[in-house]
Amino acid sequence: MCGRYASTKAPADLADEFHAVDATQESSQRPDYNVAPTKDITVVVERHPRDESGEPDRDTTERSLRTVRWGLVPFWAKDPSAGARMVNARSETITEKPAFRRAAASRRCLFPMDGWYEWQRHDAVPKSQGGTGKPTKQPYFTHYADDATMAMAGLWEYWRPSGGELAEKYPDGLVTACVLTTEAVGPLAQVHDRMPLVLRPDDWSDWLDPDRDTGDDRVTRLLVPPTPELVSTLEIRPVSPQVNNVRNNAPELLDRISDDRVTEPIQLDLLS
Question: Is 178 a catalytic residue?
Fold first, then answer.
């Protein structure tokens, strides 16, 4: 799964990197070292622009960087509280689940990030053996070894309230998004059995293309676990449990901690 990540680049820089228009209206967005569900986040989308009559211009597309809320709210939801539970979607079932089916067909997006956090769970160690008697979790941070920007595959959706107090609170509706996950493979599976679906730059256009639905081979070929070649470009390191608290947000969260502070250190070729 993916419940936290880091995104430290300015929207203008991301727009250049993803060849997109910066529509975030965030001239100086602060780096976020602990992006958590329900936060406003930056995603890359590609849509047909509207013509003067308000209809989509099917002859062209526009790629843009937009601010959305993390946690997908299905268009049919009665209220947006469902989004807090839908921060991830399993890539294997997005064409089947009612909450994701429409978004999967033409509302796919990318989550730019520096890397993601994942927690390795450990069984409780009895107090009689020097433990706390409670299960523990050790956070790890995974990123490209060359520190290039990563892009997680995602879905986005537009929700409009039916009326009443929600219409007053969300007069313009609400745009939300979720991260796709896939089976973790190789060394990554030692940390968790799921991981975000990471797409390489050569795959961004096929994924974002609103004219390709999930029946298109150029889209379905991307809904698979990472190749050994992609995994070999990653590094993973144990980081401080301070990242567990969403209120903590500083560059130090990305720092590697020493092995003597790690609960049951794992042996990975990807360790940095």
Answer: no
